[in-house]
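Handout, tutorial session.
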Amino acid sequence: MPLPRSVTSGPELHSPKEPTETQIPARGARRANSGDAPSTHREGSRPGLGTLRRAFSRASQRASGRAPEEDPGLLRRSSRFLLRTLQRAPGRGPAADQSRATMVASGATHSQEVPSRAMDGASQQSSTGVGPEELEGKSVADLITERHLLVAFEQLRHLEIRLVAEKASRTFQEDPTGFARRAMDVCLHYDGLAAEIGAIVRETLGPDGVDSAALVELARVVRAEEEAHPEPPADGDFLSTPRHWRQHWEDSVRESARERVQQAGVGEALGAAEGASGLAQILAQLGSLVRQDLQKVRLEVHPAYAAAGFPAWEAYLRAFHGAVAQRLQELAHDARGCEQLYLLLDWAANIYSSPDFLGAPDLALPSEPLPPLLAPDVWARLESDYTSFLETKIASCFDGILQLEQSRWAAAEVPDVLQGRYHSPLSMDVLMLVAEHVKAAGAISAELEATTLRICARALGLFLPRFEKAFLESEAVSEPHLGANINACEELRTNLLAKFPGSFEELEKPLVAAICVFQKRLLQDLQRDLQPLFRVLCTRDWLTQDVLPPLMDKVLTFARHLEHVAPPQAQETLQEVHRFVVREYLAQALKPQERFRGLDRVAGSQKMGLEAQAIGNTFQGLGSEATWLGQAIPCVADILGETYKDDIQRHLETLIASYPDIRRDHVLAILALRRLGRRRNQRLLQHAQALLRAVAKARGSGAAGGHVLFEEIEVPTSIDVLITCLWCSWA
């Protein structure tokens, strides 16, 4: 049936007590705290749908303080379902219509006879503190604008019931356009109520403070709507369908939280310098804003909602959690550099997730119900990017440490002596570098800590040979610097293994190797200074001069430096010096420039014995634990000066037993110091060879020690040695 061009107006959206015509929402509609009387209109004025929409848009924007904007979703939804209702209405069966009419008419009659609960006596007083007599005569639009939401809903509900009843009684059978206009009025006012709910939510966390009365009113009207429309009607009637205001409230809470979170760091530039000060400021503002808002929700907003049985805390908590997660992912997308990436990881893992984030234990963020702040793939990408930047940064830090050391070498700075040892900043710099990054990574996750340890170990392994090479090629090589570097490497070895067990074991060998390199260089310098002093030994001038003191003076000077070296390395070096002195002394004795005979030989033997005692006493006084070196020089001196030739065999036995590394060539060189005759040399050499075979067998089975002395002494092929060898072979 075609719609008529002009229709009669339906019931106006007033209190059901007033039989006047429909009233348009006034342009100057005010909030409840205004003292002016509600707006009125001339009779006969007939508002259009656009006028109603603009009125509710203005009312909503006044409440929210935002630029005018409409909710097209609500309007489209209202129009669409209303059209479906109109399309279904003419085709309904008489029985169904009669049943529906009887049921709704009964409700409408009851509504007209009994005032709404929200308007009944002092107990029906509005949450805003306005009595029912003050609300009489106000339009629904004014009630909504002044935020008497529950009263407005009760009137809308009454009009809805009456309109459904009239529809069921076929009152609009001849005038469907009239029904459409009145139904649209009701729907638009419902949408206006929903818009006002959103406006109240947006204002809740604003600078004007929390309006507890408005929140109570909001909660009650949502619950009232849920009770009025528990489920969609069987006939699909749009007017009685659930409005889902609770879901709308939750959506508004989420949108409010999102808007609040987006305010943090507005105008800050994130990708500026790698110092990450901009990001740090954004995160600080974000944390402060979320903390303040959630504290306000817990202490002010939640109690107001709780009075009406509304779970506001959980809704706000989840809304802010989601908004923070979204904001953090936006920041993560633009993060650059090691510092910025770490700031994000640290803020998410330690600051936001801290029990003290909200400033009170009872306000702690629950970790179990909430999803991860950052999605696993985002978190993994941040950690991966961070470790990539970290590798470059740690390598750069080691470059900086090397440059600092080179600057000290170039400035010829003498190492300080701290706690009795030569000190180099190297060990402290490396230990602080590793500890700082490992601690920072451990605060994020155990996996990141393990990754950082591997990065540090790998970087240190690459640094050590570079450091050795740079130092040994510099002009700063000296006993104090070598001692300081030995101490530094030993400190690194012990401290890294103790503080990070299981992570730096692979670096123990490189560190020990570096210590050995510095020890070797330390010994080389001493050996170069001592070598010329051994050349005067076992000469005729040596018999009449005291040439040992200058040599031992250099040893004593060197030993003073060892006092400032770590004890294990100092003892090793001292023993090596002790071994060097004895070895070089024997090497000079086994290749004499002149052969001693008669009294000179006896005098030389006595002098060797005295000097052997002086060498032993000196090194014993210095603390050398290489007591096994004490028999070498005296045994050779005894063989040289022995007047009872049969005792030479006993001296040989002592020498071979004490020094298993002695060879046949060394025995021949020792025998060549004496003119013993062919038979005696043959007998002594055969006996010595038997002893050497026994010693070699024992060394093969692992029964002998690992001391080395004669093995490093080269025996010259002199005429006397050749003669002694020939005699033994001819025999």
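The second record follows below. Compare its token runs with those of the first.
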Amino acid sequence: MFTTLLKSPIPFFSSFNSTQNPSKTQKGNHSFNKNSKFSVSKTHRNGPIKMPTPPWMKGPLLLQPDEVLNASKPTTKRSSNNNSKAPEKALFGKQSGVRGKKVMKKIIRDVEKLQGNGALDDTQIGKFEEFEIGNWLEEIGSDGEVKKFDRKMPWVREEEKVVFRRMKKEKVLTQAEIILDNDLLERLRKKATRMRKWVKVMKAGVTQDVVDEIRLAWGNNELVMLKFGVPLCRNMDRASEIVEMKTGGLVVWCKKDILVVYRGQNHWLTSNGQRVFNNLASDNNTTMSPEKSNASTWGRSLNGEDRDENNQPVVGSLYERETDRLLDGLGPRFIDWWMRKPLPVDADLLPEVVPGFKPPTRLSPPKTRPKLTDEELTNLRKLAHPLPFHFVLGRNRNLQGLANSILKLWEKSLIAKIAIKWGVQNTDNEQMANELKDLTGGVLLLRNKFLIIFYRGKDFLPQGVANSVMEREMALRRCQLIEEGARVKVAETFQVANESLAKTSTVGTLAEFQDIQTKYGVLEKENNELEIQIEAQKENLERELRNQERKLAILNGKIEKSAKKLAKLNSSWQTAEPDLDLETITEEERECLRKIGLKLSSCLVLGRRGVFNGVIEGVHQHWKHREVVKVITMQRAFLRVIYTAKMLVAESGGILVSVEKLKEGHAIIIYRGKNYRRPSKLMTDHLLTKREALQRSIELQRIGSLKFFAYQRRQAILDLKLKLAKLEEQGVASPQG
């Protein structure tokens, strides 16, 4: 029995070590075997084995070989597949180091490995069914019914979304890359990167002066660097086109707002010393490498360019072609356009005066107002934002040619969009907009220093429709004349033989209507207009009079309310009675004290609160260290300054020395007296506190302002009543006249 009791520590010791790190366990077992004291005899396989004993045992411990646990051999069975994870770890193990979507992806991979590994084949009983967690989660409601979740679990993969990647824009070869050889182009670009002098292109663009400067620089160097300012620096592709078109050179290098232009090989001097520049796009085709020429032709054939009915290649996108079709026939294009194509019409090249030009005829549809609402104005502005510019303008006056082109454009488009040229001196967008509005009669949607947008208006009539309306009116007049001629002919037929034609009645005829209109129509119209004007003025004056009386009543109510608050604050304080037994000082003492007080650097400043208990406390604090105190007040009226000085003397018990005018206000100098004794309580109870003094100051200011505005309202009411009396006199006198 004793042997069996001592047999248990050995397995306990081995099991304890088996929970530790496997590497450490193996090392411990090796050290145990190497120790001679606790070594197990291997010679006697069938005999008892001597085991280590605790200190309290005196005799040896002998055990049979089958009762001894061999710690040199590992008790745990390792899996044949070292890379495969345990099922429970794959299902319930934590994923460290990642978060969010990465964790879900790792969990999904582990579950997939688990399903494909076959480690759980023994646990599957019966027929294998697909494991779908989302279909087996159930919820028992309050009524006892079983409800299934239709949501997908987080690890269930969704169907792969079809993503259409944006196609990369094919690189368009420049003229330099098409025409020049690769070696020459590489040499020119390396040389361009080392250039440090450039020609500045200002707001006006590539003008003739810039072109002359470029050609002058080409006489000494084959490359010229250009640095562009706004607005061309925003669209360097367009800047390259303008430079190549105007100078005849080739742009070989571009970076940010800098272009380097190559003069070409066909550049020489004439006998007179004048420089000649040929068009490189046409003359330098001989220098094009055959590889690039073949590549360009093959590229054009493979791209499948659109062709028109005449089998000619279509240039530009559909947007550009439609805009060009819209602007065809309106005028010459502006080739220095700084934005993307299409090119707008240059309004400065249109004629200043158009013979026979007149504003268009306008006629609103029935039950329609020509004025735009705010919502319509907003929608039109949104509609005009993506539209291209139709015209470019740099002239302030004489815009009849532009107005004529705008009227032609309005027959196809609702909106005319005009850009203002950069770099043109003394441009006035307000003057441009006003003149165009007078000439066209359109509605101004937007105007600033960059653009002007006009809407043709609801009452705009195209030229064809206006001609149809005029023809219809002429036809109606002809019908009236025909009816009048037929009536006269019938009257002549049925007239009495002895009665002259002159005595024939014209009752109900067109002539009678025209006579009445000529005799009385103008007079009645004038009288009616005068009466309408008088009534409208009276109505406006009466409305204004009621408004002024209402405002005056509101002001009177505020004045009463403020007066009550002020009376309540005034009743909470009272001034001290003046001391009849005052101490007197001589004139010499007064002059000496005045000079001392003016030289004092420390002073007591009175603000908007006036005199309150804190001011009296400050006066006594000054008198603690000196005999004179200087009080500075910002009051402008001298009577108010004298009243403040007397109040300070009465409350403090001092002697008034003088009141002096300074830059910052008035200085009140007060002497404490020879018999001065510091009071036990510096702050008096019969004066206002600091907060109450501020409220009193605010109420005084408020009631003064309200009384001033009430006086203004009373004067306005009197003026309105006088005007109403005059209008009534005019209304009485007009019928008599």
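Points raised in discussion: The domain at 175-262 is CATH 3.30.110.60 (Translation Initiation Factor IF3).
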